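Let us begin with a simple case.
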Amino acid sequence: MSDDGRGPAERTNAADDGADVREEDGEYDPTDIDPSSITPIAGLIVVAFTGAVIGLVGAAASVFVADLGLALIGVGVVVALSSPIAYLRLRRRQRR
């Protein structure tokens, strides 16, 4: 966050569809995220990528510790697959 005393809405450039931009230098500020801008779909995408990363870490760890690597791969698969399942349930709930 910048120390200029303005809130996120005051620092947002309207021409860039809501991305936070520091006006003085025109750079994107990744630390200044408005929680209301995170949609449920974005959350599901983050969960899927997190599961993929856990699975990849498990694959790398399996070279050194086979049991830990296999466990992490299993957890990564479960987390990654829970995201599409949650997406389908969300779409079905929105149709009602």
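The second case is a distinct protein. As before, the sequence precedes its structure tokens.
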Amino acid sequence: MKEKLESLALTRISACFTISSLAGSDTGAAIVALAELDDMLEKFYAEHKDLVSPKEYELAKESPDAFVALIDRTHRHYLRLAEEDGGAS
């Protein structure tokens, strides 16, 4: 469980860093950032399909903020499970 929580935290950091690249005026950097976000989302969805509906997935494809919200919600889910298990891995 600890590894899953750490992985989600790293995914969130990576997504936020990548999203910040979208704010610049460099079109090439924005295109690369969008491709990286798409790759992150695909991996995230493949690993957490049981917690993310197809509709939420489609929304996250359109909105980077929705993607970060899904990461946060998934992290809270696993954190709650870890707390219920008494911190067991």
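The chain has a mean pLDDT of 93. DSSP finds four helices and no strands in the chain.
Keep these points in mind for the review questions at the end of the chapter.
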